[in-house]
Amino acid sequence: MKKLQLIYGFILPIYFLFGNLEIKGQFLIDQDSFLSPKTIYQSAEITNVGAAILKIEDFLEKQDTFDFEAIAGSNTNLGFTKDNYWLRFKLANTSDKPLSLFFETGRPITDIIELYQVNEAGTITSQITGDLLPFSDKPLSHRKMIFPIELEANQTYDFYVQYQSDGEVINLPLDLHSANSLILSSYKEQLVFGLFYGILLLAGTIYLFFYFGIKEKSFLLYFIYVLSIALLHLSLDGYFFQYFTPDAGWLSRQAVLIAAAFSTLAFGRYVQIYMKVKSFSPLLEKAYNSLHICVLTLVGAIFFIRAGQEFYYPFVNLFGILLLFLIIGTLVTSIRKQAAPDIFFRIGLFFFFAGFLVFILNNFSVIPNSFLTENASKFGTGLEIIFLSLSMANRIRILKSEKEKMQEIALQRSQESNEIKSFFLSNISHELRTPLNAVIGLSKSIQDSTEDQKIKSDLEVIQYSSLGLLSAIDDILDYSKIEKKELKLEERQLEISKVIQELRTITENQVKNKNLKFIYEEINQLPKYILGDKARIRQIILNVLNNAVKFTQDGEVKLSINSIMKNDNTVDLSITIQDTGVGIDQAKLNRIYESFIQEQIDDKRKFGGFGLGLCIVKALVELYQGKIDISSEQGKGTKVQIHLNFKVPTREQKLSVSPIVNGVYDLEGKHILIVEDNPVNQMVMKSILRKWKNTSFDIANHGLEALDKLKASHFDLILMDLQMPEMDGYEATEAIRKGEAGSKYQNIPIIAVTADATDKAKSKVKAVGMDDYMTKPVDKDELYTKIQHAFYLAKVDLSGVL
Ligand code: ADP
Fold it and tell me: Where would I find the Histidine kinase domain in this sequence (predicted)?
C-alpha cells in the first residue's frame, strides 16, 4: 500500500514535470531538445481500410465507422500487406513556445506515407513521402521516412497517417525526434552501418581476388552472396533508393526483392559447394537444387510478371526460411556423417541463424525493440561474414597445403621416374653394348688373323655398321644426359692428330661409296697432345662430318683445321666442315639445334638419322665453352665452323703414357685378371690380349671367383666387369680395397670394363675405388693405353711412398 502511495505521490508528479505524458489518445510534449527519440505508440491507434485509397476529408467523415485498434509495441509489424492503413493520434504542445519536431514512421522502403496535421481550428496541412516518389520530393532529405512538424504553443493537433504498400511488410516505428536526437541517432547508425558495410566490402573484394587467384568456385559464390547481402541491406536501409535510384521507379521498388532472392540463391549454392553436400547426402543435394530452381523461377517472375507483386515478398521470405532449415539439416547430417565443416564455418552459420531469429522475433514484436534488436540482422550478418571469411582463409590454408603435398608427390614421382629412366637407359645401353662388343671385337680379331681380302672387306662393313649402331646408342644416351644436364667431360691427354687421322679414314671410306671428293687441310701444324675428352672431340667432328657426307649427293666435303697456340699453354682449334650438298633453308636453320623438329622428320625419311646429332654437338661445344656457327645456302651447300680451346699438356704430363710403338703391344711380363661373366665378352678380351707381347691373363666369372684367384696367384692388374652374378664388380672392388684378397692387392690397379655408359656408373666406379673406366665394345688401343696409364700412375704412387 505504501509503495503505491509512493508511486502516485512522488514519482508520477516528477514524471509529469520533467518528461511528457501521454493520456490515452493524446501525447503531451513540452520541449524540443531531448536527446533520445520518444515513441508515441501508446497514444496511437490504427485501422485497416482495405484496398481503398481515401482522401483526408473522406476519411475524417467516415472515421467513426472504422474499427481502430491500439498499437502493440514501439515497432509494430503489420506483416506483408497490400491493404492501406490509417493511423491517428493527438499531439499536444503543453509549453508556451512553439516546438519544431520530427516524426518518424514506416520503414525506409515504404511505398507511400501521407501525414495530415489538423490544428484546433480544423486547418489541415499535409506532407507526403515514400519510395514510389522521387527522393528529392521527400519532406526531409533523410534515408528514413521522417516528417518535420511544427507545434504552436499550447496547441493540440490531430494527426492522421495513411500507409500504402504493394505487398511488402509495413513496420510502424512511431518516434518523435528533436533535431538533437535525430542527429545523435543518425550518428550512432552511421557508425554501425559504416562498420557493417565496410566488412562486407572488404570480405567481398578479398574473396573475389582469391577467386581470380585460385579459381575455386566457392570463393566466387561467396563474393556474390556478400554482394547481394550488401545490396539487400542497402535497399532495406533506404540507401539504394537515396543514392542509386533517387528518381524511384521499377528498380527502386524491386531492389529488395532481387537482392533477397540473389542472396538466398548465392548463399544456398555456396553452402552446398563449400560443404560438398553431394558427397554425403544426395537427398539434401536434390533439396538444394530444387530450392535454387524455385528461387530462380521467382527471380524470373519478378522481372517479367508484374501482376504477382504481392506474392513475391512472402515467397522470398519463405525461401529464406526454407534455406535456413536446409542449412540446419545439412549441418546436422554433416556432423553425423563426419563431414562437418570447420569451427569457423559453424560459428559463422550460428550467427546467421541468430541474426535471422532475432530479426524475425523482433518483426513479430516478440522481443522488445532496441537499437540492438532492430539491427540484429546487421550484427548477425557482420559476425557471420567475419567467421565465414575466417573459414575461407582456413580453406585457402588447406588448399595450399594440399597443393604442396601434391607437388611433393609429383616431385617424388618425377624422381622415381627419372631413376627408372636412367636405370632403363643404363640397362638398354648395357644390353646393346654387350653383343656389339662381341661383333666388333671378334670381327677385328678375325680381320687381323686372316689374309683373305674378301673376308677382310666384308668384316670392315660389319665393323662400320656396328660402329654406326654404337654411335646411335651413344646419341640416345647423350641426349638423355643433356636433358638431365648430366653430360660431363673428361680431361685426358690425347694425341689430336691421331684422332683427326682416324676421322679422316672413316670419312674417306664413306665418301668412296658416294663418289664424293674429300679434302683435308691443316693450316698450322697441330700440337701433338692436347688435354681433352677424346670420345667427345671425336663425336663433335664426326657428327658434323657425317651430316656433310649424308646430305651431299655430288661434289665435295672439306675438313680444314687451324690451330693457334696461345701463351697460356692452350691451343685454339678452328674446325671447318664444308660441303656442296642440299643445304638448309633459313626456317630450318633457325631451329637447327632443336631435337626432333618436323623438318628433320621429313629429312629422316630421305636420309635417315635420329635428329639428335647437332643438338648433342652444340651441347658438347658449349661444355667446352666453344662456339659453333652454321651457314648454309639451299642447293649450294653448308659450312659448319667450330671453335674450341684446349689445354696443352706440359713436358712431364707428356711422359705419362707410353705410346704404342710401331703397332707393338707389350706389357713386359704383366699378368692380368679379367673378371667377366659373359662368355662372348670373355672371348673378345681373350682374342685381344692373346696378341699382345709378354702378356698373360686369367679369367674369373664373377667377383667371388676373382677374390679366390687373387688369393691363389699373383696378378698385376684387374679388368673388372660391373654387372655380374654372385658378386658384382663394385662389391668385388670394395672387398679388394679392404684387403680381403690380401694386403698386397689393396692398391692393385683396377680398370672397370663395362657396357654401362651412364655417368652414374662412372661416378660409382670412382667412388668404390677403381682406377679407371672404359666402355664396351672394347677398343684394343684404348685398353692398352689405359693399362699403361694405370701402371704409370701406380709407379708414381709407389715412388711417392718410397
Ligand atoms: P640427323 O640425325 O637427322 O642428321 P642432326 O641434328 O645431325 O640430325 O641434323 C639435323 C638436321 O639438320 C638434319 O636432319 C638436316 O635436315 C639438317 N642438316 C644438318 N647438317 C646438314 C648439312 N650438312 N646439309 C644439309 N642439311 C643438314
Answer: 427-648
Q: Which residue has a Cα nearest atom 3 of ligand 1?
A: 611
Strand partners of residue 638? 632
Segments of 600-648 assigned E as strands: 627-633, 637-647
pLDDT of residue 796: 55
pLDDT tens per residue across span 211-249? 998 888 988 998 999 999 999 999 988 999 999 999 988
Residue 473 has pLDDT above 60, yes or no: yes
The verdict on 130 and 208 lying in the same domain is: no
Per the structure, the count of domains in the chain is: 4
Asked whether residue 235 is domain-assigned, the answer is yes
Question: Of 113-127, 162-176, 388-402, 415-429, where does mean pLDDT reach its minimum?
Answer: 415-429
C-alpha cell, 604: 629422316
Instruction: Report residue 731 as a C-alpha cell.
Output: 662389391
Q: For residue 172, what are the contacts with CB-CB under 8 A and spacing of at least 6? A: 41, 46, 71, 75, 76, 77, 78, 87, 105, 106
Q: What residue owns the CA closest to ligand 1's atom 7?
A: 613
pLDDT beyond 70 at 581: yes
Residue 615: CB within 6 Å of ligand 1?
yes
**Which of 580, 600, 605 best tests ligand 1's pocket when mutated (most atoms within 8 Å of CB)?**
600
- If one residue of 510, 516, 544, 547 were mutated to test the ligand 1 pocket, choosing by the most ligand atoms within 8 A of its CB, it would be 547
Cα gap 622→44, rounded to integer Å: 97
Cis check: omega of the bond before 173, within 30 degrees of 0: no
Q: What's 140's domain CATH number?
A: 2.60.40.2380
Identify the pLDDT of residue 729.
94
DSSP 76-130: EEEEE--SEEEEEEEEEE-SSS-EEEEEE-S-TT-SEEEEEEE-TT--EEEEEE-
Give the type of residue at 114.
E
Ligand 1: atom nearest CA of 610 is 2
Say yes or no: CB of residue 603 within 6 Å of ligand 1.
yes
Q: Which range, of 43-52, 444-453, 560-569, averages the lowest pLDDT?
A: 444-453
Cα(426)–Cα(592) distance, integer angstroms: 28
What count of residues does the chain have?
Answer: 802
Domain boundary among 177, 211, 231: 177
Alpha carbon of residue 149 to chain centroid: 64
Q: What is the pLDDT of residues 612-663, one digit of tens each?
A: 788 889 989 998 999 999 999 998 999 999 999 999 887 655 444 555 666 7
Q: Which of these three, 613, 647, 681, is where a domain ends?
A: 647
Q: Is the pLDDT of residue 41 over 70?
A: yes
Does the pLDDT of residue 97 top 90, yes or no?
yes
The per-residue pLDDT of the chain, averaged, comes to 85
The answer on 375 and 399 residing in a single domain is yes
List the residue whose alpha carbon is closest to atom 12 of ligand 1: 592
The whole domain housing 397 covers 187-407
pLDDT value of residue 697 = 94
pLDDT at 377: 77
Cβ atoms of 93 and 152 within 8 Å: the answer is yes
- Which of 575, 576, 596, 603 has most ligand 1 atoms within 8 Å of its beta carbon, as the pocket-test mutant? 603
Cα 565 to Cα 223, 559, 568: the distances in Å are: 73, 20, 9
Q: Choose among 727, 738, 731: nearest CA to 705.
A: 727
pLDDT of residue 603: 53
> What are phi and psi for residue 156, nearest 5 degrees?
-115, 135
Same domain, 399 and 499: no
CA of 592 to the centre of ligand 1 (A): 8
> Of 801 and 514, which is predicted with more confidence?
514
